[in-house]
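Now for one record.
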Amino acid sequence: MGAKVGGGGGGRFDLGQNSEINVTPFVDVMLVLLIIFMVAIPAATVSIKLDLPPAVPPPPGAKTEEPTVINIQDGGIFIGESATTIDTLPADLARKLDKPDPTQERVYIRANRDVRYGDFMQVMNTLQGNGYFQVALINEEL
């Protein structure tokens, strides 16, 4: 009885090495992922209605109204310079706008970075709950 110590001689059932890459499973996985993303992406998008300003600026000399701004700070809520509370916000805002249908007017919200997110959302929910849906956010760079 002898044992083979070394050498590269092939055996009877030796198939050798295959140096080619089989890309079929890779292509199958990519096609399945493509189909999954094609189905999932339209369901994941959320449509937001935007009221963009007109492309043509108003003519010179046209009277523009001062925007109504709600300032949220650590000390409280202000409509312009007058202080208000979350409970009296809709009534004070309607009084400030002084229009027949104040809910159709655009309202701007400004908050500094120290305001808690919950306080900001409470103001947003109060406005939306009272019919003020044209709300814009003011972003200021530091």
Remarks:
- The longest helix spans residues 24-44.
